[in-house]
Amino acid sequence: MRLDAFSICYKYDIIPAVDDVSISLGRGEFISVLGPNGSGKTTLLRILAGTLEPCAGKVLLDNRSIRKMSPRSIAQRIAVVPQNGYIPFPFSVLEVVMMGREPHMRRFAGESRHDIDVVFQAMKITGITHLAKRSMFDLSFGERQRVIIARALAQEPGFLLLDEPTSHLDPGYQMGIMDIFKSLSRYENIGILVISHDVNLASQYGDRLVMLNKGKKVADGSPWEILTEEILEEVYKVKAVIKNHPVIDCPQVMLVPGFDEGSAKSNIL
Fold first, then answer.
1. Distance between CA 231 and CA 243 in Å, rounded?
2. Sheet holding 64-65: strands in order across?
3. What is the 3-state secondary structure (H, E, C) of the chain?
């Protein structure tokens, strides 16, 4: 099974958000999508998920046009973790995770033994089993994020698309959640696509990085191919030093500040 997008274009009114972007995601692959604000990352994710229809290009899910598939059929194969997973009602954690089974359940049918087993396995993977009876309103942001991820896993997807899943989380939660995604990719053969602003996390976990800028794909390759001083300066307008991670073989980015202590102090005074 593959998720393929070919020459995708999308506009908000007359403003291009995604401009002639092609991207492919296979089962068991981990892709990190990078780019500055307004570069089209979230729009691209929504197109891949089938919730936005491109004005040009096509998206194929296992060689079938996603436009010809029902939302239910898509949800049986693709799960999405949005940037804001806020739940506006005081559902329990168990109830929220069980919502992920809806695409697989017959109308008006109750939960089967298999549904319950899948839900508890999803909660076990995300480390929230002990929260099953708690209200979503009583959880920290990091705990709520894990619940939303568990709901997505309960869909038993072949592909998991995540929009900045580690934003607003402390380093411990960031690493824990990214470890979960890497394990799902490696051991459960789930295709993972993560939108991120953290270039170092993206480098540590992504098999491939895709760099967007102003709606266009400017680079696609391994972390060492994408995180170069030249590409970072072109896309982010920053100076950077690239070093090898001391533990794992991946590039790590250290930004060079533009702040000059002497000139700044003289300007203030």
1. 15
2. 15-26, 2-12, 56-61, 64-65
3. CEEEEEEEEEEECCEEEEEEEEEEEECCCEEEEECCCCCCHHHHHHHHHCCCCCCEEEEEECCEEHHHCCHHHHHCCEEEECCCCCCCCCCEHHHHHHHHHHHHCCCCCCCCHHHHHHHHHHHHHHCCHHHCCCEHHHCCHHHHHHHHHHHHHCCCCCEEEEECCCCCCCHHHHHHHHHHHHHHHHHCCCEEEEECCCHHHHHHHCCEEEEEECCEEEEEECHHHHCCHHHHHHHHCCEEEEEECCCCCCEEEEEECCCCHHHHHHHHC
Domain parsing of the chain, residue ranges = 84-156
Strands 251-256 and 239-244: antiparallel
The Cα 244–Cα 263 span in angstroms is: 32
CA–CA gap between residue 197 and residue 205 (Å, rounded): 13
Strands 30-34 and 251-256, by their bridges, are unpaired
Q: Strand 15-26 vs strand 78-81: parallel, antiparallel, or unpaired? A: unpaired
Q: In the numeric block, which tokens belong to residue 114?
A: 């298999």
Tens place of pLDDT for every residue, the chain, 269 residues? 899 999 999 999 888 999 999 999 999 999 999 999 999 999 999 999 999 999 999 999 999 999 999 999 999 999 999 887 778 888 999 999 999 999 998 776 778 899 999 999 999 999 999 999 999 999 988 888 899 999 999 999 999 999 998 877 788 888 888 999 999 999 999 999 999 999 999 999 999 999 999 999 999 999 999 999 999 999 999 999 999 999 999 999 999 987 665 554 545 45
